[in-house]
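Sequence of Olfactory receptor (Chelonoidis abingdonii).
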Amino acid sequence: LEGLTHSCNVTEFILLGLCHNEMLQPVCFVFFVLLYIATVLGNLLIIVTVKNSQYLKSPMYFFLSYLSFIDMCFSSVTTPKLIADFFLERKTISFDGCIAQLFVAHFFGCTEIFLLTVVAYDRYIAICKPLHYTTIMTGCVCGSLVMASWVGGFIHSIVQTLLTIQLPFCGPNEIDHYFCDVHPLLNLACTDTYLVGVMVSANSGIISLTCFVVLVVSYVIILVSLRSRSSEGRRKALSTCASHIAVVIIFFGPLIFMYLRPSTTFSVDKMVTFFSTNITPLMNPLIYTLRNEEVKNAMRKLRSRKVMLGVK
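Predicted 3D structure, token representation.
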């Protein structure tokens, strides 16, 4: 990385940011600070609840705690820098810092894609093969699936990074975005990036689309299998699946729009990416806690237990 940095004329990039209206900068600053605090606290609350509750020991909540951890990290890749840049006239990021941000953002983003697919597989086994659930979804299997998600995210991210870092950057160095992503960087490269753009889109887009199709098919199979269930069992399963489907649609929509296309930029790209990197990590804890009675009951029990301990 260091050798490649010195071979380029560009040693830093200028981020044009998200909001160009100086009058709105203080409002945006407050909004993003509150949004980031809510995202971190919301996901942290889920992690603490799952870890400390004796009622949330199923594989689904094991995966949910990791999903919350990834959301917290994913949001932290871009939002703190975005907040800090609001009052800076010249929003710069070093070449190394830019490449590192690209790598980490794709690492957590792709890991979440694979983890959401794992959650769908868990729900499929739980609903369609309930008698074999405990023998299939053992602790070893759950740990291996989480590890595979991390490894898959790393491989995807290292490929995206290597495809980008080998390009020459000799100017201009203004990125029309609020963080370093692949497409804006390809537009600044001093060479023809068509082939690299196709490879980048294939890497990100195909992963997103394939996992999305797998998720849709799995939930269709689950919904079809629910027709033979009792009304109570059907209601509970539908409630759980509805939460997961909502997260899938909110998360995959922006990703498919951003990466399943040639390396071009549109005026709405920043807003779509903002939704993916800032709103989605906040929506996950809201959806899972507001729609999941087991999580809400576990939170109430933990709160009551802490109050009782405080009284003693």
